[in-house]
Amino acid sequence: MNILALSSFKLNPAAVLLADGKVKAGIEDQKLLRSRTRGMPITAIENCLESSHLSWTDLDCIAVASKPLQGWRRRSWTRAKQSAFSLLANAYYEADDSGVAAQQLNHIRRLRKRVSSADKVITLDHHLCHASSAFYCSPYEKALILTLDEEGDGRSGTLSVGDGNKIRVLETIAFPNSIGWVYTLVTDLIGFRPHEEEHKTQWLSLEGEPEHKGIFLKLLRSSDGVMPSLDFSFFTRGLAGGLPFSAKFYKQLGLPTAPEEITQDQKKAIAASLQAAVTEIIADLVTSFAKREGLKNICLGGGIFQNALLVADLEKRLNNFSVFVPPAPGNTGTALGAALWVWHEKGNPRADIASHVFWGPSFRSQDIKDVLDNCKARYAISVTDERKLETTVHLLTSGKIVGWYQGATEFGPRALGNRSVLASPWGGYVKENLNDYIKHREWFRPFALAVPEEDCAKYFQASTLCEHMNSLGWEHPDNKVLPEGLAFAGGRVRLQIVKQASNPLFWRLLKQFGEHAPAPILVNTSFNLFGEPLVVNPRDAVRSYFCSGLDAMVIGNFVLAKAGLSQLQTKPGTISSRSPVNA
Description:
eleven-stranded mixed β-sheet; globular; Nucleotidyltransferase, domain 5; disordered C terminus; single chain
């Protein structure tokens, strides 16, 4: 059975191709188009079909992780209630939302025209797809499922029970009682771009004290129960305006009403307070429902749970429960969730879906060589994987920052060892060089560290959620090997646990590097230019390499170094230099 599944037509749409219960392909549209997108992920669809050698006629089902008409009705009813005394704002948002819903319905109409039977195209509730991705990727036979995001089909969250291959919804959280929406508003308030830089709010929270936590608890949970319920006295009438916080909000937090006048210390306190309040509300919510249902396993899905700091704190608070977050908990992951829901609704058994997420495009050596020759780039060729690893280890131990481009592209928000920028943690000024000359990012954002699964417990205390960087680890108190600055906030670290079975080449690189360094640990950050998605094809990689401060790049079996290829010779015969054919 061939199932093509699409995420909702919001920001960063994605497509996944599931064939007989196994993921054959999956990619986000923005990675292919090199810019933020919304709407029908047609480029991602074409890539999935082409890489799976299928056509539209080969598809048994197309599942879309959204019900646009149902979502519009729910939002329209909410606006009518909230904006009864703000008719102009209501009319503006209603007209805008109606246009978006019409576009989404047109996307579905176009899909139905591409297949032999319109019945092959089905629409699914957005949060049901979040729940499906969270539960069916988990190792649990039965679990409580919590989904939270800004808004999907008029809802901001659900609580469900997953049992075998079925999901039963317990409660829903209607928009605008949305933790995700408030998180986005605060992101905008403190000077970051909403819907893009919520992760910066997360990391900035580590720099402040949660002195306003009580106010945010009141704002996010106005009732006596455990469900999120906004106190609308903190918002303007009709929830209208660029930042719809009311005078009460600014007064209680002691803030100037002009966002540009908020000081850096105030921003840190706001971020810390929001993060602490959100953590407490979610922990209370999960604990209450898990006890009520008699469950010990928790699955978390939705964009809120891309917040690795939140997940790590929840793991500590929920230490009597087992917690799971899928590899792509945000909107991208609803494509996978939609496919899995269709597959399991047919009564098919569970399978190990998330053993790895290298589902995107991969390229042959000839494809890479053609790009390098066309760019008139000078390169060396590593004859075997062993020689390629020797060369890469030599570069890393020499303090070089290396673009590492191997195999298929990762699905989801994080670079997991196939489209990565790597550096030795013990290299001179590694954080400064990565921040200033390559990533161009804020000083308070930590870099991730990759470590082989077998060595993790020697250096870190971490859960299995670190395999996809969905949580944080802690330095082992009795074996601290990291140089100052790579651990943060009480010994926390962003951590990727690398399994030999899921990424054998990257695992071997870590092991081999560990033979020449204090530990088999590398700094791993995403391979992309500032403001761009992860690189996908060889041309993306070459452009990013030459336009950034990278010292070298290992792309397939080809090695490039800006300091000159002669410096790559580690021992006679290790690599052979070759000029491009067209040079």
